[in-house]
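Revision sheet: structure tokens.
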Amino acid sequence: MDPQQQFFQALSALRSGDLTRCETICASLLAINPREVNTLRLRGQLLERRGELAQAAAEFKKVLQIAPDFAHAWADLGKVEENLGQLKSAEQSLRRALQLDARLKAPAKLLQTVLEKLGKTAQSAEIETINKKHAELKAKVQQAFQLTKQGDAVGAEKLCLEVLAADPENVGAKELLIDRALETDRARWAEEMARALIRKMPERPKWWLKLAASLSRQDQMLEAEEAAQQAINIDTDPSEGQMMLGAIYSKDNRFDEALRQYDLVLQQRPDYVAALSQKATALKTLGHQQQAIDAYQQCLQLDPWFAEAAWSAATSSTRRVAIITYLIPSESCPIP
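Predicted:
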């Protein structure tokens, strides 16, 4: 497997709490290149998660010896130093992180805390002003999310655009706007935002899934398939990527291949109603009527409301159901 994909798998493992898998992948990558700074940093984060703070600090320092301008590594070091009670060192590390990248929010917030502990109230007040601006933007994104839940998508979009005007890299605002763009036939805009998030966080499967959805909406099926496959390759749970790939194949009238994807999902999650419904649709399209009925009956047993809606849609338009019935709203897998 490509080393980059292995690194993404290690990062996903850390985020999901599978520290053993993360450690194993890091060890194999560092055996190939012991100076790979991203993997060294990830191993430092692993040690921090385990509570081995002194070892984590040593790992971050090793990273900074190789890449002294690595802002995130300075932030990691500052966080560990603060936890170790090394406040003066933490201040220096966090200031260096912000000097290299003033957009970092967590280090700015932590620096304010460190300065307060050191009794540097005037300097703490300056940082507090910056942090308040960050907090105001975060509150706006949260408000936009609530507006979306309440059905005011226009108001939510307006708030998100205000956030991006002040902070063009705001992740939460972009995520909400991607979903809004897909809902309003602005797939090219959704694609642009998804690609921007991938450039910043290529290890996050959900950005690849949003890219796949936006490409599928533009009938760029090969590129959409590649994006969904990338999500599958790096995710510790590939089921959402497989669902997306199945939806893409269905839209492209490749129902045999779609069926294989839904079966892969159901091997791991046999009670996943959306996968059962999509499988039933693929079976119906391929002429396997009894198997389709059996699958729909399983849907009825698990979720009568969803299964009835799927059945109703299937009887009116098979191809449309392949694109839509999977669509229980999902953060990581919007409708292609």
